[in-house]
User: Fold these one by one.
Assistant:
Number 1:
Amino acid sequence: MDEMRAREVLTAAGFSGAAELLALGENAVFAADGLVVKVGRDATGHPELAARAEREVAVAEWLAASGVPAVRAAEHGMRLVEGHPVTVWHRLPDPVRPTEPRDLAPLLSRVHALPAPADFTLPRRELLGGVERWLTLAGDTIDPADADYLRARRDGFATAAAALTPHLPPGPIHGDALPRNVHVGPEGPVLVDLETFSTDLREHDLVVLALSRDRYGLDPAAYDAFTAAYGWNVREWDGCAVLRGARETASCAWVAQHAPANPKALTEFRRRVASLREGDPEVRWYPF
């Protein structure tokens, strides 16, 4: 979905086609009429996209009822406009400062204290579920041996993850617990981007920043501030290496899908796979 098509859907939904584009990725996000409107990809033939948008609104309403600071839906439910899921949200005030990793900790603590919602079902966290699709999209651009290597890693880590004994009680998780998904407004930090909410090992939410520390250059002091605020360091858990390995596998495959159209993505894919093959857990990974 490109910006032009997203604006067509926005207009069909009754909003101004001249709205400000805030983001364009998995969804197109617009500021329109004092609200935020999220236009998803065409769900025709992909009912899971509509279900995900519907569930994101349900999650927002559940978090609101539970007292968890998070972005709030402005409409109950999702609109399906020309095949595209459209959701409408209250616009957050301007941030008062950049988000720090420690801002995540109290929000995750509150989410991790919640029981499963009563009115809808959260899916399992399918961390490795996209690997095959991403490798297929990469096609012949990547070395078939690398694709086979990642498939074998996927299968191995899926089996290992299923056998883990968690330190924390399983239950609702954010699913993509990174500082970019926290907005620090005048009243404090709030969670945003609720699409990945799921139910699984709570450790999934904590391994994200542990991997950021080891692979993406997160300052160790900032990571330590996060673990101090949360009250536990997932790196001390025996299962950390398994969830980390699963996330690294998924991250490599995700980069692969961009390789056919982006030479920098291909270079980064090769860097990541080589570091996994060599068993080097500290090789820096980069955006592209």
Number 2:
Amino acid sequence: MQILGWRSNMKRFLLVVLVVALVLSIFTSCAPKDKEVAFPTKPIQFIVPWAPGGGSDVAMRIVAQHAEKYLGQPVTVVNIPGVSGTIGLMELTEKPADGYYIGLIHEGLVVAHHAGVTELNYDSFIPIANMTDTPQWLAAYADAPYDTIEEFYAYAQANPGKVNFGMTLKGVAHAWGASMAEQLGTEFNLIPYEGTGDRIKALAGGFIDVTVTDYASVVQFVENGDLKLLAVCTEERNPATPDLPTLIETGYDLVFSVRRGIVVPLETPDEIVEVLAKALADTAADPEFVTDLANMQIDTLYLDQTQYINYMSTLDTNTAAIASQLQ
């Protein structure tokens, strides 16, 4: 009798277990799944805090054009220049953190922060990804009294303070001009302009003598005979100008380039950031995107969020160490 009772109890226990398991299975299958984020459902505004026609404008319009394919919505570039690229970024901080407002930053923001221009820094936003790396060239006015980099060095060293060097005040080009003058053992007359586009117009007009610039911003002026290129500011010679030496091979440890990345306002939801990050990663891997950038002598350099934050953090530390030279 005890054995039969034990068996009966065991059957009832197993029946209860099966019923509970069945109920749990039903509830699990019926439970609402995480909703896929419905983003984007309207155009995205892309704030480029520099004037039209400069390197940032050219590169980011290519990014916007191709990112549209992966976001399924228009990405509209809005140029808001001013105060070393900080006016547009300040406006971005005031936009809704909903993914429909994105912006561009590069090394210039970190320089401007440590030069005392703005309280904003790279971590005033959520960095999503770096997209491009733009090599730089040293360009001169067509009628400048030097045609080679060696002739420029000799002239600058023999005439301290007489070379009008165009730069963005307390921006990355300011740091470039200061570091070049320091290594040459001379002084430049640093002339401020708001962005590359304005500097190139001034250079073509003869209002300044030299500046550092990307290739896309000057190629038409060079072909028209308004400007001349003296050197490329990369570690190795560039295929676009194979006969031009690097600053390094002429004896000076100077390398200038600009990495441009995409950010959104703080508190943008993670799921929105993930959608944007995926679209930018797909854009960077698109062969047509890579070709379009290469045609403008801009390199594709994709850094994911972690890599990009690490890069900007290191840059921030290094720039803080030379902040006194930017005042």
Number 3:
Amino acid sequence: MMAIDTLSSDELCAAIAELDRCSYNHDQWLESLMGTLVCALPPDERDIDDNPHRKCRLGQWYYSEAKQPLALSNRPGFAELGTAHERMHCYAADMLRSTAAGERVTIQQYQRFIAALKNMRLEIAALRQVMEDALQAVDPLTGVPGRFGLLSRLREQQALVERCAQSCCVAMMDLDHFKAVNDAFGHAAGDHVLKACTHHMARGLRPYDQLFRYGGEEFVVVMPETTIEEGLAIIDRLRGELAGVPQDIGSDEPVHVTASFGVTRLEPGVLVETSIARADEALYAAKAAGRNRALVWDPAMDGHQPASSRSA
């Protein structure tokens, strides 16, 4: 299941904006509904047809795979929003049919509708808050989650590993000689390279993999349901592809940027912080071996110079 923190900042902003538009549209619909009931006006046929909850703007967004991201629809609570929204429209249609038949709306009908409306608004508010929280955890430059999101994600995966439910690989990535890019072309060019490399890596990962910015030019890739051999193959492919992509930074000639990687796996009984440190040690070994390569951690690397003390 894809977590909501797999969404980019652009996807989160777009989803929040659309949810806000849907909420505003529903408020306008509610005003029209109340006017129809109070003044005994003919109802809008869409509100009493079959499946009226699919015809309003919220319903169109909710049920459209093209309009809302998969990671959002898989989130616990998203189904509850759909149920509350459908129930609210069902009760609204019941009241409209009563008035259309010349009958008075009973207090029981009205109370059911109001309770469903409040529940739907609560679910919308909860979903929006989750997206706002995820957006705050996203790195503003690259649009991928930062360290806080990384630890949360790794602990989720570690729990699955402890239950022997699946394997999970972790890779630490560092751009080679990135300081030289900043020194030669300026920090604006460096930021452009960071964003371009991030987008290239994110596009090359599988839907359930995730990229995090660890700090500076360092990133971490989390690969669920992946053996160490599969993880190394994925990372080595991405490394080779990245090296072949010219980065246009506004100079006479584009630059090519390479990256080094350290790969390890989550293991039962091993803290996620230790697994990150192991990936970091393998990354240092890859740097020491000449850069632009990926190495798997092994116990012989334990205690070697940490990546935080190496040169770019």
